[in-house]
Specification:
By secondary structure, the protein is mostly helical. It has a single domain, classed as Peroxidase, domain 1. It contains nine helices and no strands. The protein is globular and about 45 Å long. The N terminus is likely disordered. Keywords: Calcium, Disulfide bond, Glycoprotein, Heme, Hydrogen peroxide, Iron, Metal-binding, Oxidoreductase, Peroxidase, Signal.
Length: about 200
Amino acid sequence: MANSLLPTRIVPFALLLVFFGITSARLSTNYYSYSCPNLLPTVKSMVASAVAKEPRIGASLLHLFFHDCFVNGCDGSILLDDTATFTGEKTAKANNNSVRGFELIDQIKSAVEQLCPAIVSCADVLAISSRDGVVLMGGPTWEVKLGRRDSRTARRALVKKYIPTPSFNLSNLISNFSAQGFSTKDLVALTGNYLIH
């Protein structure tokens, strides 16, 4: 049943991802055309392999991208691991309890590094992977604008401020999304992904 509803839930969400991808003028669909020409087929192949093993991972990648973008922009900050001197967003309660797919993104990034060392950002790998996950689950496709810079810091305090929690009622959710410029329809599209992933 969830798969039959997927395209209707994903279409509005995909439009939001396009919005997330065009918030900076320097982004371009051909950003890595010369510096890493095999980037897109490599990412797609690895996501396809993962979705073939576990179809829900496509929705999980989308969910991971949403949690990254909703806090401080699509900067890959959710991917940063904690260190002795740094506590990131990944282990914040709202992320630790609901976000997955980190290992797959790490694997894809490792493969991309072998192709094109120190060229492609983790933030772009996450954006491409999210799109490919949606497409492989029967959702729409779109061109991903690339050229994001990876964050070297995280805003853990903003996770609690911006990521909705299970205790949010409808009024809280509408207010939370509205504060970031999203409509109630956008809210339904974004939170509907929770049912699948």
